[in-house]
Amino acid sequence: xxxxxxxxxxxxxxxxxxxxxxxxxxxxxxxxxxxxxxxxxxxxxxxxxxxxxxxxxxxxxxxxxxxxxxxxxxxxxxxxxxxxxxxxxxxxxxxxxxxxxxxxxxxxxxxxxxxxxxxxxxxxxxxxxxxxxxxxxxxxxxxxxxxxxxxxxxxxxxxxxxxxxxxxxxxxxxx
Length: 175
Known about the structure:
Blueprint: H1 3-18, E1 24-25, E2 35-41, E3 47-57, E4 62-74, E5 81-87, E6 92-101, E7 104-112, E8 119-123, E9 127-131, H2 143-150, H3 167-172
Parallel strand pairs: 1-4, 2-8
Antiparallel strand pairs: 2-5, 3-4, 3-6, 6-7, 8-9
């Protein structure tokens, strides 16, 4: 392979490998067994909120991302809103949030395994709580109070930091 072909092929290979990580537009899951999630997008947030679905890879003892969808994105400070979405029950899900804080970016996540027909309050960095279907989540509700009242029986989760590394992360890993 010539050097010219290598310069052309390398970015294409990298983009193909990274395209799996780019967010897709989420259409929602509308079957009768759908689980419903609620996420507070606080006033002033700058960043993006995603829903990602993973599967367990036994050979590598890690979780591999299947799909990742953008639920909300704010380039400027958010006015604040409640993100509501219906998802397919079962499987390993995570709500992930990247929040810009000046020159720094914080990445927060909360894992959960949704059950049919259940309603969940998800707060990346805090966790997940099953809530009654008649509870209306608002911006004025305090996360701590929600978890104190409904988070006693924590939602089944999975070790969200145990994700499978891609080839670049493996190459840069020193262990």
